[in-house]
Design goal:
The complex is a heterodimer of chains A (about 575) and B (about 170). By secondary structure, chain A is an alpha/beta fold. Chain A contains 20 helices and 21 strands. Helices cover about 35% and strands about 15% of the residues of chain A. Chain A is globular. Chain B has a single domain, classed as Pyruvate-ferredoxin oxidoreductase, PFOR, domain III (Pyruvate-ferredoxin Oxidoreductase, domain 3, 3-Layer(aba) Sandwich), CATH 3.40.920. Helix content of chain B is about 40%, strand content about 25%. In chain B, helix 3 crosses helix 4 and helix 4 packs across helix 6. Chains A and B meet through strand 1, strand 8, helix 11, helix 13 and strand 13 of A and helix 1, strand 2, helix 2, strand 5 and strand 6 of B.
Chain lengths: ~575, ~170
């Protein structure tokens, strides 16, 4: 491999390959999704699996690691909530081979429901956690993670934030790839099948191991130059180090590679050496909680408790603590122009859009619980009323119906999300006689996170079979491009749910529009019959239609239109046709 | 150290352009770090990447410290104005006039030019990259073009076109 410009996620994958990982398991989620893909790219002969959800991925990675193999498991932090059950248990049993769990955090948040800190899970489960500061560091710490895991026979967490996952950095890859480590399961009931009595023993052993590891990994206190120090981990360290170097600020820098377990002796010494310590980390005060009176950070209100830490926030904090004034070379710009705000929208020709539109036509007074994926953007069409977590559309539909029995309830869930956690909720709705309609928006891929594969495209099962298996007796399949049929299918499903007191399913299947290759495509055209009623570009919100201000009518963006022709069915004036 | 912001709409090739600049630096033996936004933004939202070329650990560009902004739309250039420093340069792909003062602006219809010259609007980004290479004293243009020789021929031609544009305007 040559000197290249690599994504943090790629270097995490490369480190796993170089450490001798045999199998990798993941469920996609921004910002973690590229890791498994890169693992397969670097080592196509090794095993890689997109599991149905994060709990399954973690159990598979742990199961192989308990068998003595070396494994990798990747997810985003909200996925770790799903995987929390095995996480806590495997922290006690440890592994016989090696295992690194990568849980990617999203301070901001940019594409998540929360700003939770995976390191808090590590503390709570008592699992060592490493916090890389940039892509090169992510490679180094993932390698180190495998070394710790092999030495102490413990699973190790690596927690990169989005800015590490999605940063690129120059990196010279060497020739260090280790052969994949295969193990054999050796029975050890008190460990692998520990009853509560043995769990206490495992817990005690774990605590001793953590103390040894903390001492081995104690952060280094540098030769003292200043009376103040910054103690930091992760991307906050990288930003603080850059600011201190560029602006010559009077702080010593201490990097914490492993925020948990943190060596107690290090904390005592640091507080003896320095008059003032600033702790910078994302997003919870995990390191800071170990320090006492001489220390400032999030617990003292100096560091904001929400939102991403930016270089400007860090610079302001350091200048303020140093008692200095920050000056910038900012250009003084005058302009009369203001930028138009862009909001994310479903693509032109996306099959989800007419499905949402059909729901509103079929049930104008309906309640529409939504779910996690591209189709959360159904909020733009007023067809997503709730968005909580993976799979919660179906359970919320059951709950909403119980609380609002007089209103129709139609929930939407994508194909990947349906298999992730939707099936269990649907089974519960059947067993408990919930008269709801579940609209499965099947675009045959996991689109939002980069088109990872979905279970029903393996040819081994179908969505209908899964619904039948869950006990659903009314299942309809429609092409969302046919708006009339979509509305009819939803009305029939609502009627069935009402009379049979049971959930009905409507599957809207349309290949993701970004995957469709259009040849000699026909496009739509607005005629003079247009009255500028705004429905096609505002209510239907097609990004390929905009308002021609001069002519006061709608206009087709010919490069964006993919010719789905749903707008023809939506237009109440019959003012849209196929361009000849 | 050179710091910059590259921005545009999702799908316009912002991330590709950023990777090209970083790869160029890496192959010239200069360390570089950049940061991208993915996910939701991909569906037509605003996309911005930040890049620092030189000895540094993070890609975080502070307000008022960018040496350049390359923007594939006028709106995104306006949205990121707070990053540019006094003697910085803003290179924008737009066919509209740009009412702005207090900073050096190079605005041109790069995508239209690329469509005419190279048969694709997507090469507009490479034209802008060429302009950056051509107008920056800190970059060895000759050496950069030498390194880029392995890139697709049409991309090289678009970059060279940009370099010439910068030298003649």
């Amino acid at each position: 491999m040559v000197n290249g410009f690599f994504l943090g996620n790629e270097l995490i994958a490369l480190a796993a390959v170089d450490s001798g990982v045999k199998s990798a398991y993941a469920y996609p989620g921004t910002p973690s999704s590229e890791i498994l893909l890169a693992f397969s790219k670097f080592a196509p002969e090794r095993y890689a699996q997109w599991s149905l959800n994060e709990k399954i991925a973690l159990e598979l990675a742990a199961g192989e690691a308990i068998s003595g193999s070396s494994t990798l498991c990747c997810m985003k932090m909200v996925g770790l909530n799903v995987a929390a059950d095995p996480l806590f248990s495997v922290a006690y049993t440890g592994v016989d081979g090696a295992m690194v769990l990568v849980s990617a955090d999203d301070p901001g948040p940019y594409s998540s429901q929360t700003e939770q800190d995976s390191r808090m899970y590590a503390v709570s489960a008592k699992m060592p956690v490493l916090d890389p500061c940039n892509p090169q560091d992510a490679y180094r710490l993932t390698m180190l993670g495998y070394q710790i895991s092999e030495k102490y026979r413990l699973p190790v967490m690596v927690r990169p934030v989005m800015r590490v996952c999605h940063s690129r950095q120059n990196f010279e890859a060497g020739d260090v790839s280790k052969e994949p480590i295969h193990g054999q399961f050796s029975k050890n009931t008190p460990r692998w099948a520990a009853t509560p009595k043995f769990r206490r023993i495992l817990h005690e052993k774990l605590n001793k191991n953590l103390d040894l590891l903390a001492a081995e990994m104690a952060p280094k206190i540098p030769e003292k130059r200043y009376d103040m120090a910054v103690v930091a981990s992760g991307y906050a360290y990288a930003m603080a180090k850059d600011v201190i170097n560029e602006m010559n600020l009077p702080f010593d820098m201490i990097k914490v590679d492993m925020p948990f377990p943190l060596d107690k002796q290090f904390v005592i010494e640091a507080e003896m050496v320095y008059d003032r310590i600033v702790v910078l980390e994302e997003t919870f005060p995990v390191i800071e909680h170990n320090f006492t009176i001489k220390t400032v950070g999030r617990l003292t209100g100096l560091v904001p408790s929400e939102g991403e830490l930016t270089v400007d926030i860090i610079a302001d904090i350091l200048f303020k603590t140093a008692g200095m004034t920050r000056k910038t070379d900012k250009a003084e710009i005058t302009t009369s122009e203001t930028p138009v705000q862009l909001k994310p929208r479903l693509c032109a020709g996306c099959g989800h859009r007419p499905a949402f539109y059909a729901m509103k036509l079929a049930a104008p007074s309906g309640i529409f619980p939504g779910d996690i994926g591209c189709y959360t953007l159904g909020v733009n069409l007023d067809a997503v009323d709730t968005c909580i977590c993976m799979g919660a559309s179906v359970t919320f539909a059951e709950a909403m119906k119980r609380s609002n029995p007089d209103r129709p309830v139609i929930c939407t869930i994508g194909d990947s999300t349906f298999f992730h956690t939707g099936v269990a909720g649907l089974t519960n709705a059947v067993v408990n006689s919930a008269p709801i309609v579940v609209a499965i928006l099947d675009n045959e891929t996991t689109a939002m996170t980069g088109f990872q594969p979905v279970p029903h495209k393996t040819g081994k099962l179908t969505i209908e079979q899964a619904c039948q298996g869950a006990g659903v007796r009314h299942i309809a399949k429609v092409d969302p491009y046919n708006l009339k049929k979509g509305v009819e299918a939803l009305k029939q499903a609502l009627a069935y749910a009402h009379t049979d007191n049971s959930p009905a399913v409507v599957i809207f299947t349309k290949e993701c529009v970004t995957k469709t290759r259009y040849k000699n495509k026909k496009i739509a055209e607005i005629t003079d019959a247009c009255t500028d009623c705004t429905i096609c570009y505002e209510k239907f919100e097609c990004p390929a239609i905009y308002r021609d201000k001069a002519k006061r009518m709608a206009k087709i963006d010919e490069t964006a239109c993919v010719g789905c022709m749903v707008c023809i069915q939506v237009c109440p004036q019959k003012a849209i046709g196929v361009k000849k | 150290m050179i710091q910059g912001v590259i921005c545009g709409k999702g799908g316009q090739g912002v991330i590709t352009l950023n990777a090209m600049i970083g790869t160029l630096a890496a192959n010239m033996g200069i360390p570089a770090v950049s940061a991208e936004t993915h996910g939701m933004a991909m569906r037509g939202g605003s996309v911005a990447t930040y890049i620092k070329i030189g000895e540094c650990l993070s890609a975080a560009v502070a307000e008022g410290s960018a040496d350049f902004i390359i923007s594939l739309t006028k709106d995104e250039a306006l949205r990121n104005l707070n990053y540019i420093k006094k003697d910085g340069v803003i290179i924008v792909d737009t066919d509209e006039p740009f009412d702005i003062s207090g900073v050096k602006i190079i605005s041109l219809p790069a995508s239209d030019m690329a469509e005419k010259e190279f048969g694709g609007r997507i090469y507009g980004g490479q034209v802008l990259l060429g302009i950056l290479l051509g107008c920056f004293d800190g970059i060895d243009t000759e050496k950069a073009l030498e390194i880029l020789e392995t890139a697709p021929k049409i991309s090289i031609r678009a970059i060279e076109y940009g370099v010439r544009y910068a030298q003649t305007h």
